[in-house]
Amino acid sequence: MNLSGWEILIILLVLILVFGAAKLPTIASSIGKSMKVFKKEVTELREDTDPNKPPRAVEQQGEAPRSSYDATAQRDERRDEDQPRQ
Q: Region labeled Disordered — which residues (predicted)?
């Protein structure tokens, strides 16, 4: 897409008419921030898919949480032991 000077000027005038002169700096700033975030994400994605790069180390976590099934089974076993047999 090859824009000449006149085309850029017309686009700027339309933007001023649509958004107003007060909002243009805010819009330009938010577009710049969005482009920065997008470029950062693209760079990280390329680094993650690079086959020559060693994989990241996974952090070790503590003991896995016990499931509610374990607690329920232990409670049922204790209840069975407490009840007299017939």
A: 44-86
* Boundaries of domain holding 30: 1-46
CA dihedral in degrees (75, 76, 78, 84; nearest 10)?
Answer: 150
How many domains does the chain divide into? 1
Q: How far is CA 45 from CA 9, 41, 49, 63, 85, in A?
A: 36, 6, 6, 31, 65
Is residue 60 situated within a structural domain? no
**Does some domain include residue 6?**
yes
Domain for residue 77, yes or no?
Answer: no
Lookup: tokens for 82: 């407490």
Q: What angle do CA 26, 29, 30 make, to 5 degrees?
A: 90
